[in-house]
Structures are given as C-alpha cells and as structure tokens.
Amino acid sequence: MTTTAITNIGSLVTNDPALGDGSPLGLIENAAVVIDGETVAWVGPADKAPAADESFDARGRAVIPGFVDSHSHLVFAGDRTAEFNARMSGRSYSAGGIRTTVAATRAATDAELEANLLRHLDEARRQGTTTFETKSGYGLTVADEARALRIAAAHTEEVTYLGAHIVSPDYAEDPAGYVDLVTGEMLTACAPYARWVDVFCEKGAFDGDQARAILTAGAAAGLIPRVHANQLSYGPGVQLAVELEAASADHCTHLTDADVDALAQAADTTVATLLPGAEFSTRAQWPDARRLIDAGATVALSTDCNPGSSYTSSMPFCIALAVRDMRMTPDEALWAATAGGARALRRSDVGTVTPGARADLALLDAPSHVHLAYRPGVPLVSAVWQRGVRAV
C-alpha cells in the first residue's frame, strides 16, 4: 500500500490536544502528516517524519481536518429563487415553503435527483467537506422518501429519514393520519437505507407529542434520533432531543435557560448543531453560540444546505458567520465544523488528523486556519484528501 507524506506544513490542526500545543485544536507548527492507504499513519514535527513512498510539499501552508457537515438536505429538485427574492423584499420565512420543493422533487426522475446530489457534493468537497449527512424530506410519500434515501445511501453512510419534514400536502386535513404513515409503512420502507431519524419539531410542522411518536418509532426500528429543534420559535424540541438522547438538536436558535442547561448536561450525548446559513438567508435571529459554549454544551456547525432557507454548501462561509455573528472564536468555529460535526454524527474516525483516523484533510492557501474567518468569501481550500486520495 502506497504511503504519502504531506510535508512542510506551516500549521497543522489535529483536534487532539495530546498531539499538539495542548489547545482543543492540538496545533503543531512546522508539521508533517503521513497517510497510509485510507488512514493517517503518523503526525508530528516535519523534521521527524518517517519516510514515505510519495511526498507533497505544503509550502508552509495550513492543513486542517476535512469538514464534517452533519446537517444537509441534498436530495431535491427545483429552484426557490422567487421565494428567496420575496423574503429579501420583506416577507418572512415559514415551513410552508417546503411544499414547492416537494412538488418538484416528486416530478423529478431518479437520475435527475442523483445528478443534483452529486453536483452539490462536488461543490462541498471543493470547499473542504469530506464527510456529510443528508436527509430525505422532499418526497413525503412512501415511494418518494424511500427513493431519496436509496439515492443518498449510494454516496454517504450518514443518511437520515425525515419523512416528518412537514405534514404532506396529501394529508393536509389529516395530520394524525400522516403521523401514522410516517411511523408505519413509510418507516418500514425507509429504515433499511437510513442510520438516523429526524423530525421538524416546530409550529407549522410537528408538535412535541407528534415528534415524540415519530422519534420513538424510528428508534424502535433501529434508527438514532436527531431533531430540528427551536429554529423558528421556542418549543419542546431541545428538551425532547435531550430526553430521547438524540445525537443532535439542530438549529437551537430560540433557547430558554432550561434548554441551555439541558444541552450542557447532555454535552456527551446530544450536540447543539448550529446552522448560521439559515439565519443569514432568512434574516432571522442568530443562535447564541457563546451562551451555549460558556454553559458547557457541545457545539457543531453545519451548512443546512437546502433549496429554501440555506442554499449554501460552504463550511468556510458558515465558519465566518459563526465568528462574526454568533460570538465564536476562530478556534471554536473550526473545531465545531470538524470535530463538533463528528460528535454530532457519533463518529471518532473523522474530524481529526490523528493516527488511525480516516485520512480526510484540507490544505488552505493560508498560513493559519484563522484565515477562514479573517478572509470571508475567499476560496482558501487548495487541496483535499478524502480517504487518503487526493480529491481536489
């Protein structure tokens, strides 16, 4: 098996304090990384690097773990430019906009959905994302939800069943009947393709009792819960996520002190995943990352890439937003976008550059990871290794 040494790294982020400077990022200056097949074999000072079959000169630039995007909605068709334009002209976002994408997704062929998924994955990879989660939720019929998950599962192991995105238009007058479908026939058809079960617990979508029924049914089918929680208003989503030991409570925009305390107490179990692209694209209130971090909660950053409320695949952009508008430090934001995302997916093999981890790395055309926030909008990712293979 061929080994590759990435040498002359000016600043290496390992996310392992024991390997580096003792900080959460585990920084090593003047570093090297040796890749053996799909995994990291060695990290340390460049002058101590073992011999390798091939070498790559980083020329003093920074290397970071590949981004772990733990929340996206990439199996869809259609365009919602008109909705975005209207919202930017003064109309507020509501969950009802999802119905536009549902109609387009149902009308699309499998080939069209897969091509769109692959286009977004390539776009994200070029910006440093090497692990991604994606959901169903734009079909809302048994057949359409199952095909969305089947298409997604061909390209990632992190697939989420989100039949409970909104109540299907077909059941507009019978939401209880739709919950029965989501927890019954639809779950049976979708569970073989998914690892996770999710629900949009929000006014206009599913209330606490409905969300509990959906998540517990999914857990009984072997899926691990995660929750769209407290995005548009205060509600029961965060408390439900913590109670059911969900891997993540996502959005976390409107939090009571009790919600923050609950997430802090559950820091080893339930990650608060913040999605600043949604607030940017809807001119909504920013999540208070500082409040969560200071309380002791585990925080992740993700893109929430979707056609309606956060149409960005750029983790660097979300890092810049988190630093500028959510009161995170550059170090905290990078950790949240890498190791934090891995925690939200309950993964220990990604989000770090440590021996034995998957060899997912991004080379920045900058001397430090701080440039991700310092130079917003600049395409700094100049090379990407995914599973040890140069992908960009």
Question: How does this model look, in words?
Answer:
By secondary structure, this protein is an alpha/beta fold. Helix content is 34%, strand content 22%. It has 14 helices and 16 strands. The chain has helices at residues 81-88, 98-107, 110-125, 142-153, 175-183, 185-190, 208-220, 237-243, 257-265, 276-282, 289-295, 315-325, 330-344, 371-374, and strands at 3-12, 28-36, 39-45, 54-57, 62-65, 67-69, 129-135, 158-164, 196-201, 224-229, 248-251, 271-274, 299-301, 361-364, 381-386, 389-390. Strands 1, 2, 3, 4, 5, 14, 15 and 16 form an 8-stranded mixed beta sheet that branches. An 8-stranded parallel beta sheet has the order 6-7-8-9-10-11-12-13. Helix 8 links the parallel strand 10 and strand 11. It is globular, with a radius of gyration of 21 Å.
Head-to-tail CA distance between termini: 21 Å
The helicity comes to 25-40%
* Succession of helices and strands: EEEEEEHHHEHEHHEHEHEHEHHEHHEHEE
Mean pLDDT level: 96
How would you describe the shape? globular
Low-confidence segments, ≥5 residues, pLDDT <50? Answer: none
The major sheet is characterized as: 8 strands, mixed
The count of DSSP E runs of length 2 or more, i.e. the number of strands, is 16
Backbone CA Rg: 21 Å
What's the total helix number? Answer: 14
- What class do helices, strands and sheet pairing give? alpha/beta
